[in-house]
Every structure is written in C-alpha cells, then in structure tokens.
C-alpha cells in the first residue's frame, strides 16, 4: 500500500478562483465540489463555496483546497510554503512568472549560492511558493551568465 503527502490549501471565500488560477499555471484536471452539492451546510451563503477542490497536473502535482466555512476559524498566517523544483528550467520559470502575477516577489528567480536558480514569492491568494531550478537548468540560464 502507498501513502502520499499532498498540500491542502484553506481559503475563506476564494477557493474557486484560487484553484482555477493554479490550473491556469500548472494545467491539468480540476474538480470542484461545493458545500451545496455535498449537502454539507445549511447556510445559504455557503452553497456555492468550495468544500473540496482537487487539481491533478500533467507533471504529477496534486494540489487540493477548500473554502473555510464561516463558522470555523481560519488563520491569516501560516508557516507553510509550497516548493516546486526540478530541472525543467522552462516550466519552472513559467510557473514562477505566472504565480507572481498579482502577487509579491520576495526573492527574484536568480542563481543562488548553492548553484541552483531560486526564487520565492507570495501569490495573489496569500500562498508562499519556493521555486528551484536544479544546477543544470541554472547553469544554462541567461541569469546564470549575468550573476556568474
């Protein structure tokens, strides 16, 4: 039997918009189920909120998320960041650029002291992302030539 660890993001009222945004960044199949469809809330204001969203991407990423019901507390801060890494420099640079639209770049995507290309950002939904292009991708990047 196999086990998996998958990020599950919590939103207040914008899980649909966030999950659709992540689908536009990463591609893949998105499924969304509302509180109304699941008969999970008696509050008419929550009928169209997302009870469970799941994105499965061509890269094999699995990202899940939901809206937090109004009767539940939701922390506005987190010590969790999502990391996307690998050696497909083109994909990873595209992910970084797309995720940063409407968000805040904390560290631009540049060659890091360990030799990889690395960047950090908080997207428009408040999720922090770390993007790392392993050595081979960084060595061939235009930024590597500038920072070498």
Structure description:
The structure is a single chain. It contains four helices and eight strands; from the N terminus they run E-H-E-E-E-E-H-E-E-E-H-H. It has helices at residues 15-26, 89-100, 135-139, 142-147, and strands at residues 8-11, 29-34, 50-56, 62-67, 82-86, 104-111, 117-122, 128-133. Strand 7 and strand 8 (128-133) form a beta hairpin. The termini are far apart.
Layout of helices and strands, plus pairs?
Layout: E1 8-11, H1 15-26, E2 29-34, E3 50-56, E4 62-67, E5 82-86, H2 89-100, E6 104-111, E7 117-122, E8 128-133, H3 135-139, H4 142-147
Parallel strand pairs: 1-4, 5-8
Antiparallel strand pairs: 2-3, 3-4, 6-7, 7-8
